[in-house]
Every structure is written in structure tokens, then in C-alpha cells.
Amino acid sequence: MVFEEKTLKSERIYEGKIINLRVDTVELPKQKYSKREIIEHAGAVGILAVTKDKKIILVKQFRKPVEEVLIEIPAGKIEPNEDTKLCALRELKEETGYSTKNIIKLMEFYTTPGFSNEVMHIYLAEDLEEGDAEPDEDEYIESIYLSINEAMEQISKGIIKDSKTIVAILAYKNLQGIS
Amino acid sequence: MVFEEKTLKSERIYEGKIINLRVDTVELPKQKYSKREIIEHAGAVGILAVTKDKKIILVKQFRKPVEEVLIEIPAGKIEPNEDTKLCALRELKEETGYSTKNIIKLMEFYTTPGFSNEVMHIYLAEDLEEGDAEPDEDEYIESIYLSINEAMEQISKGIIKDSKTIVAILAYKNLQGIS
To answer: Residue B106 in contact with residue B171, Cβ under 8 Å?
Structure first.
């Protein structure tokens, strides 16, 4: 049976720059109770940007939570009241320098619905125009360019290990298969 | 330039049942500093379980962080010192009742490396034997069965919205394409 959990109490633990943490006490069937630890996140965008010669643009970036340099699609947090498409164009420009008029939404999903409300919006950007990157003050990133086959190989070898990047590339590959 | 961030200070904010939260102060180039909010998670497994008649087993479950009933592959948190394959077999049994001797690792990835260290291990389970589910005391779940084409359709329609489930199904679809 699927049961919707009613909140009995909500305790705010932390309010931060990227995330907040609260702990909800919820009611379960048969007068039972449980705690749910919840990370609040404003949502994010990821951009699968494909150059005119059909290369996917990826960024290399040190990720403190995993203490590793990861290969990811350009991405970033949605600012308050920001339109997700404009956010995608802004992050693409900031992280890679590219801009475009051809950008469409591919999909959206929850990254970790077990403990967070983060929604990830994936855009496909094509017909790219080159320009200068404008990274945030605390961002140190480097672009790389891979063909779809190279990207698929890096996923299957475990070199690309970021979920939004894997979803975006597999979804794009699947679209290619259809067309 | 890609730069590895050295930790100067680490402040523990919360230690919970599923997640911990800490805030690290890190050193950036040019004697600059920044804060990194980090969710510690023990890691999780997700199981793409395929029945003898080629149906994927999915579970419907209310997810408090997003206040929605979601359709997901069976999944769960790794217990301390638990082997990931045994964890996958345990979660499959608990949530669906099925067991098997034919289980292989498909892939692993970081769910949200921007703010968490959670690793997700995806297993493919086949040759399933039916049995009784043994859900946790605070778990209320329901199984559904979809063909690969039905699952792909539910992804493209946005009915399936969980990232690990999307990755597992797209990766499986891609394997099918190759074989």
C-alpha cells in the first residue's frame, strides 16, 4: 500500500548557501511515527551542449563532497525566480563561453528524492556561438569536447560518474537512435 | 584550470539516520576561501530486476522530500560494512519479495556530487524467484511491472522522474540495443 505521510512537526536544522536541512516528523499507518531528513535545494539545470561538429562540451571541475575532479555537463543552481531556460543559457555562457538561440528542454527529474527535493532540468543546446567564459569567483573549470561515442565509452568505463551527465548523454544517444 | 580544494576547517552541523551535514572551509587560488556544504551519505544500491517474461519491477513509494508518490527501481541505503551486492539482494527481497542467483553490477555513479558524496551502485538482477516481500517497518510500497518499452515511454512522458531509475532503464535499453 502506498501511503502519503502527513507532517506532524518540522524542525529547521540549517540554512545555507546551496542547501537547507530540516527534519520532519511524519505520521505512518497504525499510529506509528518516523523522522524524515530533508535537504531543500532550489533546483538546478544541466546543459547538453553540442558544437557544430557534433562534439558534446563537458567541464572538468573539482567536487569537494567526493574529493575528485569530475567530468560533467555544464550545470548550476537556479537563482531565485530565475526562468530555467535563462538559467541554462547563463550557466552555459559562464562555464564554457558559448551562447545560442537554439535551446530546448530535454527532460527533468529528481536527483535524490529519498533525501532531497532537488529538481534537475536538462536542456539541449545546439547552433553554439563561441565567446569568453565567465566563471563564478570560486569556480575553477576546464572544458573538454567528446563525440557521442567517446562520451558513451567514458560512461561505460566509469570515467564519467555524474548522474545528470549520464542521464543527459544516454537520453541524447537514445534520441539519436530514434531520428 | 582545475584546482583541488584543501580543507582548512570542517564544522559538523548534523548527524542523522540517513545523512550527516558538515560545512568545510576550503582554500582557493590567490589566497581566497569558500564554504562547501557537504551531505555525507553511506551510499546506496538500486536494482534493475527483470522477470522471466522481461518485465522490469518498479516500486511506488511516497517520498517525503518531494511530497509525491514516485515510481523507482527497488533501492536502499548500504548498511555499515555491507557488501553492495548483498545489499542489492537484501533490498530486492525486502521491497519486492524476489530473490535470485543471477545478479551483476551494471554501473556506479555519484547522484549529486555538487553537495553530497552519495555513490549509487546499480545492479541487474535476472532469473528471479518469487517470494514474500519484507518491507521495513516505516516503508509502504507497491510493485508494478513494465516492459522496457513501457518504461521508456514513462520516462519520456515524465511519469518516471527518479534519476537512478532513469539511468538504470536507459543503460539497460542501451545494452539491449548492443546485444
So the answer is: yes
